[in-house]
Hints:
single chain; mainly alpha; three-stranded antiparallel sheet
Amino acid sequence: MTVSLKFALILIAACAVPTGAMTQKVYKCGSSYSQIPCPDGVAVEASDTRTSAQKTAANQTSKSQAKQAQVLEKERLKDEAQARAAGQALAKAHSKKDPTDSKPAAKKKSKEPEYFTAKPVPAPKN
């Protein structure tokens, strides 16, 4: 599993845990759910049935996952900075001209047009 996927899953879990719903009436209307009563709708119990110990454990888990996500983010940023610095150093090394290369660059003999021109295929010589 990649680091970015782990990070995304941790963030989703951290956001989902503390969003407890207030006790309210929810109605099942066919295959969908709504807060508005509908014809032939059935009231569904939507209260949080977890114990206080379960809620505390879930909160502790989400806090530890958030800390872990921050550590992973710092590590990722550090790795990206190192890779960026290495890439810049490599580009700088390649951009410097070799002093032993005294041969001048070849010049183009004719200027190519800025647009495409179709030319017919020459006829074969017999």
